[in-house]
Amino acid sequence: MTDDSNAAPESTIETAIRENDPALITYITAGDPSLEDTKRYVEALDRGGADLIELGLPFSEPVAEGATIQAAINRALDAGTTPEGFFELVDDLETEAPLLVMTYYNMILQYGSEPDVRPFVERAAEAGLSGIIVPDLPAEEADPLREACDDHGLDLVFIVAPTTEGERLETIMSQVSGFAYVQARLGTTGARADVSTATHESLERLSEYDVPKAVGFGVSEGDHAAEIIEAGADGVIVGSALIDIVADSDDPEADLEAKAEELKRGAVRGAESLTVDAEDTPEPEQP
Amino acid sequence: MSTSDPEHNRERDSEATFGDYGGQYVPEALMPALQELEDAYERYVLENEDGFMDEFRERMRDFGGRPTPLQRADRLSERYDREIYLKREDLVHGGAHKLNNALGQVLLAKYMGKERIIAETGAGQHGTATAMAAAHLDMPCEIYMGRTDVNRQRPNVYRMRMNGAEVNPVEAGSGTLKEAINETFRDWATTVETTHYVIGSVVGPHPFPKLVRDFQAVIGREAREQIREKAGHLPDSVVACAGGGSNTMGTFHEFVSDEDVDLYAVEAGGSSLEIDAEEGLAPNSATLSTGTDGVLHGAMTKLLQSEEGQIMESHSVSAGLDYAGVGPELSYLAETGRVTPVSVDDEAALNGFHRLSRLEGIIPALESSHALGYLEESHDELGDLVVVNVSGRGDKDLETVLEETEKRDLEAAPDVEVFDG
Ligand SMILES: Cc1ncc(COP(=O)(O)O)c(C=O)c1O
Fold first, then answer.
1. Which of the following CATH numbers is that of domain B32-62+98-212: 3.40.50.10490, 3.40.50.1000, 3.30.750.210, 3.40.50.1100?
2. Residues A98, B20: Cα–Cα separation, whole Å
3. Which catalytic residues are annotated (chain A) (predicted)?
4. SS3 annotation, chain A
5. Nearest CB to A186; choose among B172, B189, B298
């Protein structure tokens, strides 16, 4: 059932989530609109209370992305963002929150001179990244990357979708590294106005697994964060709502910091109402 | 640390891949649907459960017009001093081989209990075939098509709408096939529980490359029997154009184990085989000939990509060949030497188009014209008996051909300037 084989040294990412539970995980695309800007934005998110920061390394065919992040990726590619530029940005960053890279599999394969995942992972480790998320790499294809990540102490974070059930869920949960990325709804990334019922159902399905769970896809407000944490998540993941600020705000740094604060406050509120509930009801209904 | 047992993994790998190519590089949300499709593929297609394949064949006969003829091309045979036979897929309902796959998959979706069909299209040939099949089998259908393609392939947009399909223009990127595929995957990731994605070529994640190949394999199965009947023996070579490679694999599949039959996949050489790395542009679609290994649209295959892994914009005068990837099985067969990838440029394809129109009274699709262009350039290596797949008819291409012909001094072209007179 739960996985005890994670006797490996505790991961930076898992620690960051457990120690900051309820954790705020933020995503922005590196190079949108330039790598210099990204550096300042990441620092603003760090100040605002992000506990983990995902940085997108742009790929020309982002099939898992909705319109908002697609546009961010296009801006980053138009600005000439390269993998090497990305790693140099990470070299320069000194954040309290650990950093993860989110990118598509082909970008990882092509980093060296031959199609091979190792050069990318080595460089990621050297730059100080703590983990990798690959939206087009299901567990079935992940062995080479997982082995390379294990060798370099990086987490390879897997996504659990609303359609992930039965044996596949077991397999993925037994391989969780860092945290389980719980996809809140079917479809692509993008800010939404509500928290889907799929979120509640997924968290219910995962409640028996003792691994950190963070929910993403559609989270945009502090109230969503509160609701998701209340539903049993250990963290919330926010991307498109932050990209909107990057794209539209007159003062992205200030607004990103404020948005991170709002989201973190929401998450904490959700956690508090859980403890209050627990105190109010001496015999909580735990499944 | 991994719980998966290696024996099981190897078994799965050999099913999902062709050598190092293929696989299932898709978002997690789609994996259960691919497994469901694998299961349906095995039961209905491979094992003919519930008489699926019987119904498919019957519908391809009555609705689709199969079998198509294998015709001796008298004047081409004379011109090249060898026996040239044409497999006439241009005579399939809709005017291209595309219906073989579209009808197969829409029917399969029905057997699987799916309620809705989606598909991408580039030139509009796969979209029109899917729209026809969906109308024929009474399934709601939505087609994604890049904005550029919508604008340059109007007649096909109207045909799809006539058949009741919704056409959704895709504004992203260069507005061509690659973007249309991205957007169809996004729809599918949202609607996967009720919807089947009818992918248009032997590309995408397993099991699509095998599924599409098996629906298209009727081309080679018929051709192999027909040539033995007409010529008394197997051909020395078989020639087909290759974009994603569905007419190619469909024609080749039955011949792959006939080791004395040479297989030529003719790619679009565009205006040049050189790439513009700075701009991320390949002025061709010669993926097998010039591409490098990588992952696109769910499969490990040959790609036109930058050193950093960004996918390039491809080009061909023929919209149906204009794609930066190619089916993983073709990558494998090219890598192992079983298939010989070659290319002809826009100009040779246009000449091939005009030549077949004038000499044989058949107006071929610009895609198929690449295979015909190759005959002119390299017939000597093809042997005495040659089968060429005419994957589609060229009615859809007349405007492009007039435009492109006016720009050039083509040896085989009529004087198109007087056409409007
Ligand atoms: C007539 C015709 N031939 C060939 C192709 C190329 O596709 P494939 O390489 O999958 O056969 C197309 C695609 O639109 C087509 O319409």
1. 3.40.50.1100
2. 35
3. 54, 65
4. CCCCCCCCCCCHHHHHHHHHCCEEEEEEECCCCCHHHHHHHHHHHHHHCCCEEEEECCCCCCCCCCHHHHHHHHHHHHCCCCHHHHHHHHHHCCCCCCEEEECCHHHHHCCCCCCCCHHHHHHHHHHCCCEEECCCCCHHHCHHHHHHHHHCCCEEECEECCCCCHHHHHHHHHCCCCCEEEECCCCCCCCCCCCCHHHHHHHHHHCCCCCCEEEECCCCCHHHHHHHHHCCCCEEEECHHHHHHHHHCCCHHHHHHHHHHHHHHHHHHHHHHHHHHHHHCCCCCCC
5. B189
Q: Who contacts A8 (Cβ-Cβ below 8 Å, separation ≥6)?
A: A150, B1
Q: Does the annotation mark B120 as catalytic? A: yes
CATH 3.40.50.1100 fits B70-95+218-419, yes or no: yes
Nearest to B275 by CA among B328, B315, B309, B325: B315
Q: What is this structure's pTM?
A: 0.95
C-beta atoms of B24 and A162 within 8 A: no
From residue B302, alpha-carbon distances to B65, B110, B239, B289, B340 in Å are 34, 33, 20, 9, 14
Give the residue, out of B100, B160, B201, B374, with the most ligand 1 atoms within 8 A of its beta carbon, to mutate for a pocket test: B201
Report yes or no on A4 lying in a domain. no
Say which of B185, B193, B307 has its CB closest to residue A110.
B307
Per-residue pLDDT in tens (0 to 9) along chain B, 421 residues:
333 455 555 566 669 999 999 999 999 999 999 999 999 999 999 999 999 999 999 999 999 999 999 999 999 999 999 999 999 999 999 999 999 999 999 999 999 999 999 999 998 999 999 999 999 999 999 999 999 889 888 889 999 999 999 999 999 888 889 999 999 999 999 999 999 999 999 999 999 999 999 999 999 999 999 999 999 999 999 999 999 999 999 999 999 999 999 999 999 999 999 888 878 888 999 999 999 999 999 999 999 999 999 999 999 999 899 999 999 999 999 999 999 999 999 999 999 999 999 999 999 999 999 999 999 999 899 999 999 999 999 999 999 999 999 999 999 999 988 888 7
- Find tokens 């790499």 and name the residue: A137
A102: CB partners within 8 A, 6+ apart: A27, A54, A55, A56, A57, A132, A133, A134, A135
DSSP H or E stretch at residue B404:
helix B398-406
Question: How far apart are the CA of B234 and the nearest CA of chain A, in angstroms?
Answer: 39
* Cβ partners under 8 Å of residue B218, min gap 6: B60, B66, B67, B100, B250
| Structural domain boundaries, residue A190 | 12-280
Q: Do B31 and A140 touch (CB under 8 A)?
A: yes
Q: Identify the three-state secondary structure at position B377.
A: helix
A3 in any annotated domain: no
Identical topology for domains B32-62+98-212 and B70-95+218-419: yes
Ranges of each domain in chain B: 32-62+98-212, 70-95+218-419
Contact B311 A61 (CB under 8 A): yes
CA–centroid distance, B77 to ligand 1, in Å, is 25
